[in-house]
User: Fold these one by one.
Assistant:
Number 1:
Amino acid sequence: MADRFFNNLMPDLSQTVAEDGDSLMNLLAMPYSSLSHHLKRSALDLKETVVIETWGFSGQLVHDFTLYSGTLGTAFLLFRAYQVTANANDLSLCLQILKACDAASASSRDVTFICGRAGVCALGAAAAKRSGDQELLNYYLAQFHQIKLSNDIPNELLYGRVGYLWACLFLNKYVGAETLSSTTIRQVTEEIIKEGRSMAKNGSSPLMFEWYGQRYWGAAHGLAGIMHVLMDVQLKPDEAEDVKGTLKYMINNRFPSGNYPASEEDMRRDFLVHWCHGAPGIALTLVKAAQVFGEREFLEAGAAAAEVVWNRGLLKKVGICHGISGNAYVFLSLYRATGKSEYLHRAKAFASFLLDRGHKLLSKGEMHGGDSPYSLFEGVGGMAYLFLDMVDPSQARFPGYEL
């Protein structure tokens, strides 16, 4: 199991001191304002590399339009860079890339934010709104309204109803309330709850869902991701109780280590510590539940999951989905929820590890850069996004997951 992650030898906050010749320890001991300057500079350099590799060298042809592994992830990174630096060139290039993604995704039957047409239209509308282009905003909104959900669509985040619902909520945040009507959001929510209750009959959890025959627990395809998005909508009291009950079922059936199984069918293998499967994605959902429901049990469980991430989450992969970049967001979410400096230190530690050693480990093959090495969810695009988010931790949000 240890071949999946680096041993985390970095000290906790109270033990951190600068050491001659140890560049990582010196980063950890650095005042946050100084470190954030280094992270921002590295993020902007990485952003340029990502743009060149995914857009500049491709002849501006889009083969994979998705946020997850494709060119939309580059547009999303540029949108975040624009939010952080207010560089109008980033927004302009974001809109150019979106135009190509729009053409490439026009016939797609996938409807979600991370892997489908909704991501292109929702981000397109948000970027058009920021640029003040009303005609373009109207175009992307009209395109979004043409997206239809099939009757046999699953309910998970990457390809299902919840991924479409998240796109609706993103639009309402970045374009304006009721851009997607509460009626539409209500209809989708009711269908998700209905299917979750139906599959959970005779089970211990109030809600359950399947994707390709497995009842997953994680953020990408399972319970954690579905509960996370449901907590962003207005739930009826009985629906809120079902969400809470589902999360408590997961807490009560976690591994003794504090980690979580990948699925109902895989309740014995305690080895995945990823956003997509395992403690990191579930921790983000539990911290959100503590804020939404005000119950300490969720915050305590989120903190316990974060211990797993600290001990086993320094993965030999770089990305957001299953790598160090994504796992750092666990500590950022707990820092926002609690204000405790120890969590900011741990996020700083994961980011500093990447800043200090990431490129060297990738070049030596000791850390995996993903099948799409410049993408947002698998590659260094995710590392750049994390570094931008570290500039102001109070505004950090896991891309495509935390609103």
Number 2:
Amino acid sequence: MTKKSAATTAGMSVRNVLWLWWKLLVVVSLTLCVLAFLKLQSYSLSDSELSSSAFSTSSISRRSRPVDYRGNPKVAFLFLVRRNLPLDFLWGSFFENADAGNFSIYVHSEPGFVFDESTTRSSFFYNRQLTNSVKVAWGESSMIQAEKLLLGSALDDPANQRFVLLSDSCVPLYNFSFIYNYLMASPRSFVDSFLDKKDGRYNPKMSPYIPMSKWRKGSQWITLIRKHAEVVADDDAVFPVFKMFCKRRPPLEASKGKKNMKHQKQHNCIPDEHYVQTLLAMHSFEGELERRTITYTEWNESATNMEKKGWHPITFSYADAGPVQIKRIKDIHNVYYESEYRTEWCRNNSTLVPCFLFARKFSRGAAMRLLSEGVVSQFDVASIMNSTP
């Protein structure tokens, strides 16, 4: 009896130990599942930035704005600059020939920078900087954020009906009257937008928030009607997805050795070349666009340059800004999109028009030549040679 009782007790002890281990295994497994779920949620919905379902227009917040405006429409010139505005003297001359009731000016510069008599030659830019600006880095989502801030500020004025995004190296190719009439004559936005088939910038992790079928590419330099400007400024669904998944690939660094190979496998996504185009496509607004930019850029597309540092816009010098070169840009009436085998003829209400109203990137010397030769207006170059800043 004693031996049997001991054997029974030993068997129960083994079963108890196995049972305890089983319960512990179950608890640990459940804990790991919960942690994995929470991690997935934080990755997919970081700080509640992304919605819990696929994109829909209901996720777009709308600020209270006038539905209709019957007064004199204005063009809002939105300058996205690094710090100051090097070509302010040219733009000052441009705006001098305009009716003040036909335009407004907004400048996004680095936080804390103020446009006044000590930082700009033109009074048109005095205190036109945004007070809520952000630090901007090329190839990052902060560029989109700055554009959204410019549009948001300009939309506070119901008279603003056209919104033109410009860089600190942009120049007008015509006088104000021509540009104003050109923009107001069209009920469409001018947004360079085409299918991105080759670059592989689309990150599958964007799905289902941003379907690949809506992924577009194009120039950052856009001109929007008010309806489209509101969509871009108020978007709080698509922008967080871009911020999380559309990022520039780190540059090659000799010191990182094999890590460079890992970095080069990342999606090389430049947010400002995709955001507005993709957002408007997701809203089914492409039928309301002239799918081209009105800002001319000349690219260095040589194979050697591409291998070394990628394609970059050419900067126009004084020698490049003569009548012949400017006429060549003005005479462009169509743009070919290789990825879509599409020739976009530049039209405005079915009328054939010059494709470009602005151009970049222009040096200070090139801008002086435009003024001295009357491209924008008659101007005495000597008047600014010794001026400040």
